[in-house]
Amino acid sequence: MKHTDLLGNPFSEATEAALEKYAEALHQFHCYQGDPVQTIESAVEEAPGFVMGHLMHAWLHLLSTEPEAAAVARADLERVAELPLNRRERGHADAVAAFAAGRWHAACRILEDVSIEYPRDGLALQAGHFGDYLRGDSRMLRDRVARVVGRWSPSDPGCHAIFGMFAFGCEETGDYPGADHFGRRALDLEPDDAWAHHAVAHVFEMQGRSREGIEWMRERQPHWAQDNFLAVHNGWHWALFHLDRGEIDEVLALFDGPIHGSRSTVTVDLIDASALLWRLQLLGIDVRSRWETLARDWRAAARPGLYAFNDFHAMMAWVGSGDGDRTAQWSTAQTEQTPQDRGDHAAIAEKVGAPLLQALAAFGRGDHAQALALLRAVRPIAQRMGGSHAQRDVIGLTMVEAARRSGHRELARALVAERVHLKPDSAYNRALDLRMAA
Q1: Is the dihedral of CA 165, 167, 173, 178 positive or negative?
Q2: Are 204 and 216 in contact (CB under 8 A)?
Q3: What is the mean pLDDT of residues 49-76?
Q4: Is the separation of the CB atoms in 200 and 168 below 8 Å?
Q5: Cα(380)–Cα(260) distance, rounded to whole angstroms?
Q6: Quick check: helix, strand or coil at residue 326?
Q7: pLDDT score for 339
Q8: Cα–Cα nearest to 208, from 428, 46, 423, 431
Q9: What is the predicted pLDDT for the residue at 342?
Q10: What pLDDT shows up at residue 425?
């Protein structure tokens, strides 16, 4: 039977029970809580012809960037190939096919058109929004949602997620008051919206308001720290606030606890663990034993050449743990496959991924001048790799230390001056300033 949900989105085939499961899975996805994969699998068990159930299943895997994701999505596409699809569903199917083939830009453009025609399709908005994040497209992180946010009412199911996505888009384009406003509005509607919480945390990070950030994380911990896909990432933000204040013991406690204490081998969790240890190592903190543990977990999860952002953080673990074989292997991982194998990622790997991995390898072997040269060349276009401004800040931090160690002291002081200008109250930046002056 054909159905329309409470937001006016058409479904070609569904049952009432399957639609209820779809709504539940979408809410879990919006909040990054629970197990939306299991929930949507139960929906398609209830209704094997439920097209949007199969397509949501594909999106949940693709957006994880896990190695097996594309194969799962292609299997989902095979299941819907013989089913009748309406225009909205055809848009999703075409976008899934493009994304699974590595054509991320095309997938996000298709979803852009779906959202224009169906502005209250929460799945299309969230899949497109996360695709923008993976591609480092700050403008579309904001504008994809800006185009439709006025079509949503706070009484609409899922409106909190639209506000939360808009908050993150505002933050990534420098509109910090707007980000704070919409992030808090989202949380007023749904306190468990981990993405909205994370958007406000980004505002504190970018503005250097580390004391407020620590209070924010602590006060809201029950809402983001349990049964939550973003728990490790939000824990990473908490650790960054302590790092900004020079509170190293607290940073290490968070690493050993919520960030890597569970030894998760989920890629996004490993990324946060690497990103934190690398920052500590740049400060001269001895984290070698933690690197060795983390590298073992990366070996269980990593496959080179799939996504430059993931490879960049895996390389940190190889360098930090002294794994010379993998450091050498991964230095060329971005360029070994043909463009046909990897779609859009081939150009990203060549221009951004490869030089970043080579820079980390050079840094690890003590060739700091080479690391600095590579980082200076790639830093202006590093956003193409994806991630957020806060995550890519590790490139700038590595440049500072590479400049200092290679004897380019005036450049090092200039780079630190940039940081002090943006965050004058940061104990981390003040310590860097004194270190460069000495």
Answers
A1: positive
A2: yes
A3: 96
A4: no
A5: 31
A6: helix
A7: 46
A8: 423
A9: 59
A10: 87
